[in-house]
Amino acid sequence: MAKIATPPDSPEPSPGATHWRGLEALYATAPVNDLFDSRLEIDGDGRSTIHFTVEERHFHAAGAAHGTLYFKMLDDAAFYAANTLVSDRFLLTTAFNLHFTKPIRAGRARAEGRWVSGRRRVLVAESRIVDAQGEEVGRGTGTFMRSHIALSSLDGYGK
């Protein structure tokens, strides 16, 4: 007699994973992100990665990415790393410090965000951009605070 294997029930996603997917959806629906070929990936509390493509349309006159691209990707990576730890409110950037270490040319890159400290009033997170060759091209540190905006009230978060 043949045995029939019954697959185990698939586990329900953890509350954390549900929140992370909501943040990824929120990123994807933000109108500013229509300007960039980018995707947010969250795989744990206090961590985020933004995969993006640097295009010539992002260049300044000397043929490398303009600082606005560095700021956008560094701020977003740090912001989302911090917001993984706050599941009810949208965070606001209150300060951001960045350091350019190398010009970034056209191609794939990633911004890696990591929460550093704080959970109640102010959260601190850092981020870095790594180019297609695996070299760090910029880094930043930001402070973020809880806003009065409920994440659940934002289009995209629950999708």
From TrEMBL:
CDD domains: PaaI_thioesterase. InterPro entries: HotDog_dom_sf (IPR029069), PAAI_dom (IPR003736), Thioestr_dom (IPR006683). Residues 63-136 form the Thioesterase domain. Transmembrane segments: none annotated. Keywords: Hydrolase. Gene3D superfamilies: Hotdog Thioesterase. The keyword Hydrolase applies. This is Thioesterase domain-containing protein. The lineage of its organism: Bacteria, Pseudomonadati, Pseudomonadota, Alphaproteobacteria, Sphingomonadales.
